[in-house]
Design goal:
Helices cover 67% and strands 4% of the residues. It is mainly alpha-helical. The chain is elongated, with a radius of gyration of 45 Å.
Amino acid sequence: MLVERDQEIARLNRLLFEGAREGSRLAVISGAVTSGKTALLHTMTDTAGGRGVRVLPAVASASEQKFPYAVLEQLYQGMPTHLQRSRPRPGLDALRDPNGPDQAELSLLQNFHRTLDELTDDAPLLIAIDDVQFADLPSLRCLAYGIRRCRSEALSVVVSRGSLTGPAATALDELLHEPKVCHVRLAPLTVAGVSTLLTEELGTEEAGRHAAAYHEMTGGNLLLLRGLLDDRFSRLTRGPLDPAPGTDAPVAGELFRQAALSCVYRGGPAHRRVAHGVALLGDATSVPLLSRLIEVEERLVRQSVALLTEVGILHGGRFRSDAVRTVLLDDLELHELGPLHHRAARLLYEEGADPIDVARHLLSHEAPEPVEEWITQALCDAAVHAIAADRRELAMNCLQMADRYTTDEREALQLQATMVQAMWPFNPLSQMRRLQSLAGPAGSGLLPAPETIPVVIGLLGLGRMDEAAAALEQVSRAAAEHPGSELDTGLRAIRLALSSTYPDHPELRPFLDQEEDDGPWDVPLPPDQTPESPHVTAFRALLTVLSRGVDERAVRAAERVLETVRLSDRTMLTVHAALQTLVYADRHATATTWCDRLIEETSERGAKALLAYFCVLRAQIALRVGRLRDTVRYAERALEELPARGWGVTVGMPLGMLINAHTAMGNHDAAAELLARPVPDEMYRNRFGLHYLYARARHQLATGRQHAALTDFRACGEKMADWGLDSPATLTWRLGAAETWLTLGGQERAARLAEEQLELAGESSSRTRGAALRVLAATRPRQERIALLQQAVGVLQASGGWYEMARALADLAEAHKQLGDLDTSRLMTRRALRLADSCGADELSRSLQRTPARSALSEAARTGEDTAAFSELSDAESRVAALAASGYTNREIAAKLFITISTVEQHLTRVYRKINISQRRELPASLDFDVAYTA
């Protein structure tokens, strides 16, 4: 603290100027560089001068340490003229003395001793030497001789010193270790000391608030503190008169950086080299490594690290401020920096350090010529670690640098494949050319088999099936040599993926035909077998659901994969397949939770391609549950994140979702515009193309082109049957064809298709079963329709198919209307209208609004008749009646209005009595005008 420094000054004054006369006195002021030693020494000399004490000052310098008697010469310059005649003349005195140099030095020592005696006879004398550790050896010997032999009580000596190594250390220790020497050690300021210093600059309140931060950046070093404060003053003079809040917090500027450099440079060349080495490595904890890097002895490195820590530059082996590390790196010349980085990389690599730390140095300079073999391997290792840490830019930089320096063709191809795999989830378009260049080497076996698998997947997405098949053949050969290996497992997962997604290609048939029946899911594994790979599990679950329909075991397997597999470059297709399984199995709630989580994760990572894939799945979920606006929103986002060209032959999925949703909403122009966009022919030969074909058929049906629609629905069915994917989970093409036949008057054909779909759907409450019941009802006589439609509504309500439920309710309203039950028809219309509005089915909503089917009583209410009865309703009764008129159940009304079901029933009883009706269906339409759509 500053108070402690004042106490040290008082102690030195008492010793040197006020104590009992007990012979010469010696005081040593020590401390780290810039700890205030020189300032304290000057304070002592000023005090001595004020008391009439003669002062002989000298400043030792490292640059003059090799010159004999350099310090002694400075002391003689402060003496009276008649005494300066005896000052040393190195070399000349030795030549004149017939007894040689030793006798000449003795003569000098004796002359200096006599000079001190003469000076102290007249007045008290203070010898003050700054940075005595840099004094030349002859001067130190002379000082030690004179001080020991001068018995005058008028002589005092005060010196400041830092650390010293070398030949002068022994002589300095001899001088400074007299019995009555007073040692003053200046430590850096504590937080309290910093606060005291800051109070003068910032005021008490701000000093207390920021003292800890200033101390953290400087370690209590006075020079660094002054640098920070000078930077603050500089900012304030350039800024507004009234500084904004927070401007008193420490911010490293140019003056702080220069102060840090000054601290380093004052320690000498070796000290400076250590500081540069620490800046390069970023850490000083490994002294042997640092010693090898800068080629300085470990002993000296430890001393410098300790000094840098004491002076406040380092703390725990690291720089207190990044600004100091930056300025030290900038201080290195370019011709020094490159070799140091290269040496650091090699040393770290040899020690088995973190590969990313090794790469950081390699990327900072060009590799030497010729390139050393270890460099390429080090960069590849770093790329693997960077990919795992999701540091894509670093990974690409490592791979590109390794690619520039490698001379091995297979290694170069492997690097190119790794680049594709690393960047594909983020920007497939940027990697297409590189992927295409790998097709030939992958098919000819030049590319290693593990790196060939991602290339195969990329080629399939681009629709280059011949090249993908050739590459797969190479993988199959390699896998056959290592059965049960990771490569063999990867190949099996690809075969399952082909069966579920790309089954319509003769080039790929050999790989599909090799897939064997997997048997029951629940059969326990023998003790000597390992669990199935999650990659195989995910694709097997997806193929099961697509080919056989919803399978609970497959669903549970997919959920396990999602719970245990972390999303990464190598698992993205596995995670995607597991999530698709849940979507096709209509596990909408679980699929939505996982999908939203993965959308958030990929969005934060900036993985645009992965984000687009999960957005499409989210759109598919929304379409299957009938949330049409959400379908459009997610599908459009998918195409924004990844343009159509980046989707390749899988573009049918986002386009199919958009076309289907726009058609259901009645936006036929938007759907037509999407259908007018060019798509690759290969798209129609994969599962994603089925969704496009089905969506086109629905658009054609909705716009009156029944025969074209029927052609597309049939094409869907034929492909699904040929591919072994004809299950209700995939697409309900039979219902689309049945609806088309209904518009063409083909009741029997429509009924047969609906019954087939119903049989495939089974007895479970599913969206497909509900939709099949609705279509089947349209083929039946009027009296039979209501029962089938009521059953359809119940199934759809249980399964969550809201758009299909709105359509079923609309059909039910029409059926009641045809039978003359207008009140029930009106109630069903309102429920259908509410659902249609909620789903975004605008066309269905408009058609329902054109056919209100009001009863006589509702007409009377609408035209203002019997208004006295309605005016008697309380606000609570009006709200309950309005919701009941809109088709809400008593339980739903209670939940919306936060009242009990019993209260709802009581309100409705009073409403019936006041407006003179006996049942819910007779509630007039006018009641829902102000409440039904806002409650």
